[in-house]
User: Fold this.
Amino acid sequence: MIRFIKRLFTLAVTLAVLMTFGYCVVLPRVLPLKYQDIVVKYAAEYNLDKSMVNGVIFCESHFEADAVSTADAVGLMQVTQETGWWAAEQMGLDPDAIDMTDPETNIRIGCWYLNWLLDKFDGVTETALAGYNA
Assistant:
């Protein structure tokens, strides 16, 4: 019985070490979650779940602020210049003064646009996300 308890204890310690390693070393490399202060700020402002915003950023740019797509979408949330100008105008911002490569501007406009799509599609998240990607 003591041998079983020792093995169980060894297994528990090994699992704890592996989980700590995974959480501290592996997870930040796989899902970097950068720019959290900006994500939290604009997710709250536009009534979005911050996990959804992080998911969009991860899928669109893998948290690379200088990402550019083949469709010329730029930044963390991969917003095209035309969509950025239109959204800025709708938000009461000067479209000529926005810089879609700036993480704060990109997340702000991307969150506004996600919120707009959710309103347009009656809160159906899947449809709003499909519209965002289209």
Remarks:
- The chain is about 65% helix and 0% strand.
